[in-house]
Design brief:
Layout: H1 5-9, H2 15-36, H3 40-46, H4 58-67, E1 86-88, E2 93-96, E3 102-105
Antiparallel strand pairs: 1-2, 2-3
Length: 118
């Protein structure tokens, strides 16, 4: 069957169709942006900074490094809040007995994590 170019050419490009398409694209972009930020509150909580690396002592930084401490656990079932060495504090922060009572993120984890007896 032969393609008839006149069918394609007869489609009118009106101001109404241009505005309608522009609104659809804008709404689609806004929806995509809105969905991309879903869960960001949970991520912000997980990224709470409890101690400033710039102000900690060299020994504290060394101990954190040797224990493999990270402020965000890769395993939600194993985080500082559920560790035997963690003592709760204000907000999302607490202290760790292994780090000499230094501030840690409740959602953090280190290689010496041990389940709390609670």
């Amino acid at each position: 069957m032969k393609h008839d170019r006149t069918d394609t050419m007869n489609t009118k490009l009106t101001r109404r169709s241009v505005i309608k398409r522009g609104i659809q694209v804008s709404l689609g972009g806004a929806l995509t942006f809105g969905l991309s930020s879903c869960g960001s509150e949970g991520e912000k909580a997980a990224q709470t900074v409890c101690s400033d690396p710039e102000t900690m002592s060299a020994s504290e930084a060394s101990m954190r490094s040797s224990l493999g401490y990270t402020p965000t656990s890769s395993d939600p079932a194993q985080n500082c809040a559920g560790c035997a060495y963690f003592k709760g504090g204000a907000g999302d922060c607490g202290t760790c007995d292994l780090l000499g009572g230094a501030q840690v993120n409740a959602m953090g984890r280190c290689n010496s994590w041990g389940a709390s007896g609670d």
